[in-house]
Give the backbone structure.
Amino acid sequence: MGHSSVAESPDSRSRLRTVRLDGTPVYGYQQRPGLPAVSVTRFDTEAAHAGLPPDHRHAHDFLVLVYIEEGTGSVTIDGAERPLRAGEVHAVSPGQVIGVATVATFARSRAWSVAFLPDAVPALASVSPLAWTHHPLLALFASSAGHGRVAEPDQANWSAWLADLAEELAAPDRLGVREAVAATLTRLLVAAARLAPHAPGPPDPLVERVFAEIEATFREPISAADVARALGYTPGHLTTVLRRRTGRPLLEWITERRMTEVRRMLRETDLPLDAVAARTGLRDATYLVRRFRDRYGITPQRWRRTERAWP
C-alpha cells in the first residue's frame, strides 16, 4: 500500500509536492486533462515494494482506498501498525503517514489501489474538506474507522468493480467515461462506507473549533497565525496538535479549503481568475495560478476548459 500503488507505478498520477520538516515526502495528485481525478492500479505487493528504501514514509494530499484481494501483511499508518488481510478494504486519508518498513512480511499478494480527489464524485464535488469525515460516502475515512472487511460472498463484486473502473480509465475517449467512472467510484464508496462502524467516534472538540474558524475566515487573506491567535494558541503549538490529530498541519487545512472553493468556482461560475482569487483569500490571479498548478499539476484555466467540455 502507498506509493508503490499510487506514485511509483507506471500509471502514476502523483508527484512529489513538498517535504515536511521531519523529512516525510508528501505527494500530490496530478490530474489528467479530460478525465476525473481518479486512478486505479492492481499491483503485486512484493514486486511493488522491492525497490523501495526501508521505512519509505510518505503521505499524500488525496484519498486512497486499498482492497487486498489475496495475501497478508502489514503497514504502518501514522506510526501504528495495521495488519492487512485478504478481503479487507483500507482507507488512507490525506496527510496520514504511511510506512512500509514491515512490507517484507508480505506473502506474494495482490491488491487494488484507488486514488482520487473528492470532486470526481458529484455528491462530493462541493463538499468542504473540513466536512469530509462527516460525509456518509467517506465514513470509512473517519479516524474511528480506517478499514473494514468485505464479506466473502461480496469479494468478487469488489474485484469486478475495480476491474470495471480500470477499464473505463484506460479508454478516456470512450463515450460516457466520466459518468461511468463517477458511478463506479460512488458504488465503491457506498460499499466501503457500509463497512465502517455504525457508531462513529465523537468529534475532537479542538479540531472542530479549528475547522469552524477556517470555514468562517478562509475567504479572507488569513494565515495560520491568524487562526491560532483567534483560538488562543501559538501557531507552532496548534500546528503540531492538528497534525497529530488529523495528519495535516494547520496551513494545509487552510490551503485545502481554499483550493476546494477555487475548483468549485472554476467549475460553476464564469468569474475571472482575479475575482476567484479575491473570493478565496488568495492574493491575485498570478498567485492563484501558481498555487493551483503546484497543487494539481495543471493550470486553473486548462482545468476549467476541461471541466466545461463535459455536459
In short: The first strand starts at residue 14 and ends at 19.
